[in-house]
Design goal:
Helix Hairpins, mainly alpha
Length: 281
């Protein structure tokens, strides 16, 4: 007989019971928070594993993430705050409410209209809940300031774009990107003494502007920038490991290796990467 979602809920109840696991019984909202974040990141990274033909990695990480959600719901139930059924009912009702083009009589022929309607309904829900439309209830408040900066930038610009605050085309953003590059060059030239806090702050600000512009190019090209950078990080790890292995095989240390030699090994690693990518296609 297949395992069901209810079996997982019952398992968590057992783990938190007096005869269950001492460690599980000790957990609270606060102690679970870092694990929830960690599991979310691991599931996020496993998406790329699935794209590369390893869906079992994503399956397992989604299970770990789901377990954290069930864990939180059990703690809440014990505190008489809400239950897993309440969590499911709340998200079910919200999704029905926010898809009137599916479950109601609203027409939405494209995703842009769907997203605009979504933001409108969220604003209506805030008003119905007695929340005033002041600056503190900005459209952008739905984006967590605790998210990684690249992810936050992508979500902020996505939210703004839904209400029409956006570049018309990716070419316009390339112009903005070039503008930010030139501003960064000027800041570095004019404020070369980075030991001075004001100079350092100016350069830091311009680097941030450059990264924000690059993030918007990713958004326009329907690329999740956090995932794209993760891929590049993986690639860098792989190619740098090739350099390390090559030098180890030669019995050669980094301080005995010129930058030209390392660059040659890097290019060799790139060639190997390209060959492997072609084989996997």
């Amino acid at each position: 007989m297949p395992t069901t979602f209810n079996d997982l809920v019952k398992l968590m109840e057992r783990l938190r019971s007096p005869n269950g696991c001492p460690w599980d019984r000790e957990q609270t909202y606060a102690t679970l928070a870092p694990m929830l974040l960690e599991e979310a990141y691991e599931a996020f990274e496993a998406v790329e594993d699935a794209r590369e033909g390893r869906p079992a990695e994503l399956r397992d990480e989604l299970g770990d993430l789901l377990f954290q959600i069930v864990f939180y719901a059990q703690v809440a139930k014990e505190r008489d705050e809400f239950t897993m059924d309440d969590v499911i009912a709340a998200i079910h009702d919200k999704m029905v409410r926010r898809h009137p083009h599916v479950f109601g009589d609203v027409t939405a022929d494209d995703s842009a209209t769907v997203l605009l309607n979504w933001e409108t309904m969220k604003a209506e829900e805030r008003r119905a809940a007695g929340k005033t439309e002041e600056v503190k209830t900005s459209l952008l408040n739905g984006v967590s300031s605790k998210a990684p900066a690249l992810m936050e930038a992508h979500q902020l610009s996505t939210k703004a774009a839904r209400v029409g605050f956006d570049w018309k085309s990716v070419d316009d953003i390339f112009d903005k990107l070039q503008e930010e590059i030139e501003e960064l060059r000027r800041a570095i030239t004019e404020h070369a003494n980075l030991k001075d806090e004001a100079n350092h702050a100016r350069v830091r600000e311009e680097i941030g502007d450059l990264l924000f512009a690059a993030t918007n190019i990713a958004r326009h090209m329907q690329v999740e920038p956090e995932a794209a950078l993760k891929l590049t990080n993986r690639k860098f790890r792989r190619r740098f490991a090739f350099i390390e292995t090559s030098l180890h095989d030669r019995g050669q240390a980094f301080d005995q290796t010129s930058i030209d030699e390392m660059e040659g090994l890097w290019q060799e690693a790139k060639s190997t990467d390209y060959t492997d990518e072609k084989k996997s296609v």
